[in-house]
Amino acid sequence: YKDDVENHLPGFGDNDTNGNNTDDHDVDVNETVLKVGNLFNDWDHVQAVVDSFAKQNGFVANKNRKDLDPVDKSIVRRRTYNCWKAGTYQPKKVEDINLHRDSSSNKTNCKWEVGFYLGKYKKKVRLTKLNNKHTHSCDVATIELAPKNLCLPQEILDKIEHYTTNGRLGAESTQRVESIIGVIKKHVDCGTLLKELVNAIDQELEKEAQYTRIADYYGSNPSVGLVSIYNTIFKGIDSVLEAKLAPIPLSLQRAQMNQALLYQATLVSIDQVKECDVNNSDIIERLYDTPQIRLLELMTDIPSNALKEL
Q: Can you list the alpha helix ranges (DSSP code H) found in the chain?
């Protein structure tokens, strides 16, 4: 935050807690320090500094109060943060005793609080109030596991929305992203852990990969032994489809290519063979509906010594 935090400016009259100007204050790059008089460019910068300070000191800071400008309601003039253990637990009991349940709370009525004010003329956010005392122990090691610190940052969620809504992606990329976005919409909320989201996406990709492997295996083994038709006869079409389609639609298209050259053979006996009515000078491949018989079946009743030439 070294580049964003500027030197202390003159006070804002009654908005300052002590009414006097203070010395210049800077926020150290390695260790975030909060002092009355610190200046910030905007509320986003305030949020980042408060979160960093709380994380370094082993607690979580939550927004407590927000005061809007009396004239322009879109401008936030004051904002305060308090500790996540502020206040006391107020149980909501119902009349039916069977619906009561025992529960515990981590509220300790902690008094830690920090307040900020956006000046009307200087257009800088100033730290005006700080009570840096806690009524509980703060653990820097375990605060990383707090739900707030495990959620996806809003910046990441904004980028995901931007690239999926406004991105110019190919058909394959778009379908893959839509699949992943469906998983994200289903699982992400304010309490979702990053690890849980990663596992859900991995499972979705594994299902897609497994389906693709099965479909490719089926398509590469046609019953007449024509392996990889899409890489030979339909090579040009397949190259275009491969560039435009996701794995699952691509497998379906390749299966249709294979089926385009497949036929189902039916074995018949010699008694079922009849004279063909079509022109025998035609190409034999066009006579797909003519009954066929194996040569071995024709030689069943012929002695081997009677065969002169094949």
A: 43-56, 147-150, 154-165, 171-187, 194-219, 235-244, 247-260, 295-298
Which of 136, 132, 114 minimizes the C-alpha distance to 50? Answer: 114
Write down the pTM of the prediction.
Answer: 0.41
Given a contact cutoff of 8 angstroms between Cβ atoms, the answer to whether 38 and 126 are in contact is yes
Q: Token pair of 85, please?
A: 């253990």
**Domain boundaries, given as residue ranges, for the chain:** 13-145, 156-260, 270-306
Give the C-alpha distances (Å, rounded to integers) separating 267 from 292, 294, 305: 7, 8, 27
Phi first, then psi: give them for residue 61, nearest 5 degrees: -100, 130
Cβ-in-10-Å burial (0-12, 13-18, 19+) of 92 comes to exposed
pLDDT tens sequence across 226-279: 556 777 788 888 888 888 888 888 888 887 787 776 655 565 555 665 555 555
Q: What is the 3-state secondary structure (H, E, C) of 48-115?
A: HHHHHHHHHCCCCEEEEEEEECCCCCCCEEEEEEEECCCCCCCCCCCCCHHHCCCCCCCCCCCCCEEE
User: What is the distance between the alpha carbons of residues 288 and 168, in angstroms, rounded to a whole number?
Assistant: 47
Cα–Cα distances in Å, from 172 out to 159, 168, 176, 247, 251?
20, 12, 6, 8, 12
Phi then psi dihedrals of residue 273, to 5 deg: -75, 125
- Residue 210: how many CB atoms within 10 A of its CB? 10
Quick one: which of 251, 252, 152 has its CA closest to 201?
A: 152
**Beta-sheet strand order (sheet of 39-40):** 39-40, 125-131, 113-118, 76-83, 61-68
Residue with tokens 């990663």: 198
- Which one is predicted more confidently, 133 or 297? 133
- Going 72 to 75 to 81 to 87, the CA torsion angle's sign is positive
